[in-house]
Amino acid sequence: MPIDNAIYDRLGSGWWDESNPLNALNGSFTPARFTYFRDVLAQLGRNPAGLQAVDVGCGGGFLAEEFARLGCRVLGVDPSEVSIRTAQQHATAYGLKIGYAVNAGERLALKDESVDIAYCCDVLEHVTDLDQVIAETARVLKPGGVYLFDTINRTRASKLFFIKLLQEWRLTRMVDTGVHSWTMFIKPTELEEILRRHGLRLREVVGLGPRAGLASLGWNFVRVRLGRLSFGDASRLMDLGRVRRVDLSYLGYATKLSRRSGSGESRQG
Ligand SMILES: C[S@@+](CC[C@H](N)C(=O)[O-])C[C@H]1O[C@@H](n2cnc3c(N)ncnc32)[C@H](O)[C@@H]1O
User: Fold this and answer.
1) Which is more confidently placed, 210 or 1?
2) CB of 266 closer than 6 A to ligand 1?
3) Which tens digit of pLDDT belongs to each residue from 183-196?
């Protein structure tokens, strides 16, 4: 099934609505991802206050709002106009100052070496040109800048979970379209190689997955299907978080190599 990225325009006005399938990315997903990213910045000794961050593929702004609350100056970009409008309206309603722009990750309208933090969450497995997205991210990051990400591994387990269970099987699927294409999932070694080619050193990869048991997961997906559970509740009950296995999703970070050291190491990180 080819990937259907048009879904973000069709459903993108409802990112913050718990009955909208896109809201499944909030629930336990936003806290799981954000907690890890915040911890990485702390480990690296980076005080986020005042740092310039770009959220590549920001969708409805779940993570942009978290980074803004940390004190970052955030720019969220996404090719989906509807999503950007929704994100902007939500931030305004909550008194958050976040810049938003319609822009694909393959060609960022940002100056070279202008951002301290770039992050890309559940986006890399959606983009048309992965190499170009990473190249652009590397271009706009300052030397020593931090790249944070999460994406989906290309394994038998991810095919079963993300494709069969969540997208194909009639009783359990969360959406009736191809939000994911298994062939676009990315192995950590492949990502590491692309990052390296563009001057980003992969520093860590950790597993991200549901901590709820398989039976409860399956049953909750059926309840969503029957209209008895919202996507927001299903996401919370999934209890996404750090897990040992990396064969479903994984989180990680890289740092941009310092020009001055030339040694492949960031002086700051
Ligand atoms: C699964 S959503 C993730 C949204 C958000 N990052 C989050 O985690 O809540 C994937 C997002 O990637 C965006 N996207 C698709 N192709 C893209 C591209 N080439 N560059 C940047 N974003 C893209 C979609 O419009 C969509 O908003």
Assistant:
1) 210
2) no
3) 999 999 999 999 99
52 φψ region: left (φ > 0), alpha (ψ -120 to 50), beta (else):
beta
Q: Which domain holds residue 143?
A: 7-153+181-209+243-256
* pTM of structure: 0.95
Q: Does the residue 197 lie in any domain?
A: yes
Name the residue with higher pLDDT: 73 or 172: 73
Q: Which CATH number belongs to the domain containing residue 21 in this structure?
A: 3.40.50.150
In percent, how much of the chain has pLDDT > 70? 96
To test the pocket of ligand 1, the residue of 8, 30, 120, 133 to mutate (highest count of ligand atoms within 8 Å of its CB) is 8
